[in-house]
User: What shape does this take?
Amino acid sequence: MFAYIPCETDGCTHPAVTGSPCCLLHAPDPEKTKRDLLEVLEKTRSLHSSTLTGAEIRDRDFTGCRFSACNLSRNLFINCDFSGSYIQLSFFDFSKFLHCTFQDINIKYGVFAGSEFSSCSFADSDIFHTNFLGISARNCAFDDSDLYYSTFIQSQLEFVSYTDCNLNRVDFSSSRRNNVNFKYSNYEEAVFTRD
Ligand SMILES: [Zn+2]
Assistant: This one.
């Protein structure tokens, strides 16, 4: 698990960005702090036990990257490509993803709770035990994916496609669904209501 190191600024409860004693808000040069960490990731294609929160991350190529035990909560991702990446036990909760691609990815124990997705694709992926609790998603596709034991409890889904997916033990209870397509998927093995 990532180590929680608080920002050194008095009274700040945000975690420090890896490589800095402060959160992005209190870093003397936030752009440089963010850039330095993203450059490590782009060079090594791997990020382990690292923290970057509250950042705007735009037009980045994360294809084939490995994320493990990372805290990437509360970020705004615009036009980022995570295709072919591997995400394990990492937090992307309360983030916003616009026009991002998660094609052919492998996620185990990912946390996207409370996040917002617009025009994103998670197609052709293995997404196991992943938490999409309370997300809002619009114009997104999970087609041809295995979502075993993932949860979409209390999510708001609009124009979201789950064509030919494995939905075994996937929990959609208390979700609001408008124009959601489950064609060719085993939706009878998913959970839609709880007693
Ligand atoms: Zn701070």
About this structure: The mean pLDDT is 96. Residues 146 and 166 are 5 Å apart (CA to CA).
